[in-house]
Amino acid sequence: MSTVRDRPGWISFREKLRGSAKVVLGTWVKIPALETVEMLAEAGFDFVILDGEHSPMTLESMYRATALSQALGMHVFVRTPDRSGNYIQRLLDSGVDGILVPQVSSVAEAQRVVSDMTFAPEGRRGLGSTSRAGSWGTLPSTEYVRRGSEDIVRGIQLEDAGVLDQLDEIMEIDGLDAVFLGTGDLGLSTGLAAASPEFQAYIDRFLAAAKEHNLPCGTAVGSGTAARDAAERGFTFVMVSNDAKMFADGAKAALAGAVDTS
């Protein structure tokens, strides 16, 4: 069966995050529609994160968006609905390129979710080679396991002050491939303004630890200008806005000047 992996120059998302000489750009997908996914691919995004935490996307809609995104040349990360691990097995077997688990709050929790994304005996992921990730059983089980072991990005989202005191221990976890700083919830947990020196110091600590442990590190911003600033600061992958916000802004811009607001 011919797949996107057979295209000349294809590299895994894991390789892309680790080997790209420039920042890797993505956006959040919150609208469960294939048309918007197609538009994001045409816009030129490197990857998308299907947002299972803060959107109405279901397992089925994420599955379909994964297939289309990859067919159009984008890698697919999925943010799970929570940190329970309930969706991890099924999402990985849907053929996604990586998983991002939100609200990881301790070393033990980070170890558990990484284990959920890792095949036994090192982890708890089970064999599902008759799934889409195994080309519906046409891929040899050994290759299915290799891809699931070597190509998948196992990511966690860190977003409270307490967990940032455990950065070194967390980033040393075997099998962890990427870390993401959730600045929105970090602001809530610390009570600090984003522009404050104290808040910026948290970001600096995160970036320094990621660099020391040679881990791709990401964050989310609202604009292309902010993405460039984040890249210059040291983030290796950056989420720029989201599909719903882009549509909302575009709708407002389309009506600008046409409606009498007096």
Averaged pLDDT: 95
CATH domain fold name: TIM Barrel
Question: Fraction of residues in helices?
Answer: 40-55%
Per DSSP E runs of 2 or more residues, the count of β-strands stands at 8
Distance between the termini: 61 Å
What gyration radius follows from the Cα positions, in whole Å? Answer: 19 Å
| Main sheet strand line-up | 1-2-3-4-5-6-7-8
**CATH superfamily heading:** Phosphoenolpyruvate-binding domains
Low-confidence stretches: none
N to C succession of SSEs: HEHEHEHEHHEHEHHEHEH
Helix/strand/pairing category: alpha/beta
* Biggest sheet layout: 8 strands, parallel, barrel
Estimated share of beta-strand residues: 15-25%
- Name the assembly state: single chain
* Basic shape: globular
Q: Give the helix tally.
A: 11
Going by CATH, the architecture would be Alpha-Beta Barrel
What's the CATH class, please? Alpha Beta
Summed up, the domain count is 1
Précis, in short:
The protein is α/β, with parallel strands linked by helices. It has helices spanning 13-19, 34-43, 59-71, 88-93, 107-116, 141-150, 167-171, 183-190, 197-212, 224-233, 243-255, and strands at residues 24-29, 47-51, 75-79, 98-101, 153-158, 178-181, 217-221, 237-242.
